[in-house]
Every structure is written in C-alpha cells, then in structure tokens.
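Budget justification aside, the reviewers requested a transparent look at the raw inputs and outputs of the sequence design task funded under Objective 1. We therefore reproduce one unedited record. The lines immediately below are the structure tokens for a 158-residue chain.
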C-alpha cells in the first residue's frame, strides 16, 4: 500500500478504476476496493458500487472462466433502457409476478443497482421499487401490469 492515502475526486477515482480494470483482472467489488487502496485511494464499498454503475462496467469472464469487470465497448451507456437491459442480463436471475408486485431475484448485492436502473427508466407500469441485497420488489399499478412487467424483465434477464 502507498504510504500516503489522499482524497480522490469522483472523476479522478473513476479514471483510476478504469485503468485498474483495464490492466488486471478484477472480479469483485472487494478486489477493486483492495486495488484502489493499494493505489492510495481509500473508499467505501458503496462508493465503488456507484462508480461501477457510473462507468457502466460489465462483468464478463476471462479465458479461465473467472469473473472480471471490463469497460463497455464504445464508452459509457447513456440510455437508461440500455443500462437496465445490461444490468438485468448480467445480474438478474428471475422475475415473478405476485398480484401487483414483481419479485425480481438477482446476484447478491445487485438488487439496489437494478432498482435504481428501473427507477431511471421511468417505466409507465412501475409505481416504485424497493431493494434488498438480492431481491428487488417492483410495485405495479395492478396485477395485469405486474404480469406484463415480469414478462418484460424476464426477457431482459434471458
């Protein structure tokens, strides 16, 4: 670790993150936290999570099948629907309608990012979202909207 830890601004920290994931395999947020700390940038897991979303990092696998974050091709995502589709494809597991609620299961830690992506889309069938660690509850206006929404989300999950 560097002897000095200094405060990085958001854009400088995100440039550092982009450099780290380009140069080496980083498969988890905790590995990224460690790499940032080694570079002299101490931040929280929540900050790293926000930076991953802001950069549009994608979780892929290397030649040995190990997970790794990569920068998206062509730069950052700006379309909220594209961002939602990407995050559901990477981290979503299944979507099930239950009355006027869609229960969306995800990888551990991904539900808050999925809820934020859904909120940013401003989907006409979504009244609101509530996220835990690996489950996101998506409230629809009625059961019919929930079924349509669950089908749409399940299709994005793949």
């Amino acid at each position: 670790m560097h002897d000095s830890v200094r405060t990085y601004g958001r854009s400088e920290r995100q440039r550092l993150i982009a450099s780290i994931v380009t140069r080496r395999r980083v498969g988890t947020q905790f590995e990224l936290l460690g790499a940032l700390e080694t570079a002299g940038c101490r931040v929280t897991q929540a900050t790293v999570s926000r930076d991953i979303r802001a950069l549009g990092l994608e979780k892929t696998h290397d030649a040995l099948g190990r997970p790794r974050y990569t920068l998206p091709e062509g730069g950052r995502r700006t379309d909220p629907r594209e961002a939602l589709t990407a995050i559901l494809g990477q981290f979503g597991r299944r979507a099930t309608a239950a009355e006027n609620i869609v229960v969306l299961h995800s990888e551990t830690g991904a539900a808050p990012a999925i809820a934020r992506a859904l909120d940013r889309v401003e989907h006409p069938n979504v009244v609101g979202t509530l996220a835990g660690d690996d489950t996101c509850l998506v409230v629809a206006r009625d059961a019919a909207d929930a079924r349509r929404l669950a089908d749409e989300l399940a299709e994005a999950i793949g």
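The chain has a mean pLDDT of 88. The CA atoms of residues 100 and 146 lie 5 Å apart. Computational costs for records of this kind are itemized in the attached budget.
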